[in-house]
Amino acid sequence: MVKAIQVGLGAWGFSWSQDVIPKVPGIEMVGYVDANPAATERVQTELKVDPKLCFQSLAEAGKAVEADLVIATLRTEAHYPVVKEALQLGFNVIVEKPFASTMAQAKELVDLAEAQSRVLMVSQNYRFQPAPIAVAEFMAARKFGPINQVSVDFRRHAPTQGYRYWDMPDPLLADMSIHHFDLMRMVLNVDPVRVACRTWNPEGSPFAHHPTGAALIEFDSGIVVSYRASWVSTGSYTPWAGEWTIDCSEGEIWWTSRDHFMGKQKPDVVELRPMDGKAEKVKLAPIEFADRLGTLATIAKVVETGSLPPRFSSGKDNLLSLALVQATIASANRQGEWVDIAEVIK
Fold first, then answer.
1. Is CATH 3.30.360.10 the right assignment for the domain spanning 127-288+323-341?
2. Which of 5, 210, 236, 257 could make a disulfide contact with 241, Cβ separation 3.0–4.6 Å?
3. Distance between CA 35 and CA 175 in Å, rounded?
4. What is the pTM of this model?
5. Ramachandran angles phi, psi of 201, nearest 5°
């Protein structure tokens, strides 16, 4: 059993407490931490957590219980100080994305995890779905030959879908697009080189900052991805992972993933479309632990065995996904000017 302390019991943290942690075998919860007494009272009342397992601070919890892992489920601005403290106390850590607010903070946490010989994992839960795993394998096998170009579209209407963070800086690029950027790196197995991005805030939008954007992203293999995304689209919505078209020399692969909303869930879809043949839907292999359950089950196994699986979203690996976010924000602030990834990750 991996003994764990959860830090952050707000709305999203409570979702982890209720919907994720109990469904992953091998996790023994030995502590729940939140500075807000109402938050700890909620897990005690609704989830029947023993009050003796609830603490006001991680330091307090660390003195009272023995643990292997900290599950950090806080707002972005709190990630850096909490993850830093957890690593300094000798814990392994899984943290929500983005795992830091700046590249300097992220690199510091990666270096600290290495110095402490601890595992730092970023919960990039979109990696743990049947479609991106299958497509990553097709790409590795060069199913339809070399890639010509890739396009990704994301469309959602936040005002009618329960979104609450209207004042969040960069609600598209930092809060949503990091999922898509991380999937680009995983599925295509490439690293970004430079980006050009424009964002905007349409008239009548409830957002304080830009919820809509478009970007060109160039990778080290020469692949260029065309990316379009909106939190205020009134057209047909896409699943959360977006709709992807990977155009290759002998055909294209179309796929989408994570079509979840309001308690309803549709399966991932992958279509193989050979240039001179009939489109074929791929029968996708089921995943034992998908989405957030997948990230938590993975870190538990890593802590237990010490072995890193393929496509593991370590803090070190995630630096380039975070760099893509920072570079697109920088480009948008410069009215679409090309920004090198090296500039933001130096």
1. yes
2. 257
3. 24
4. 0.95
5. -120, 105
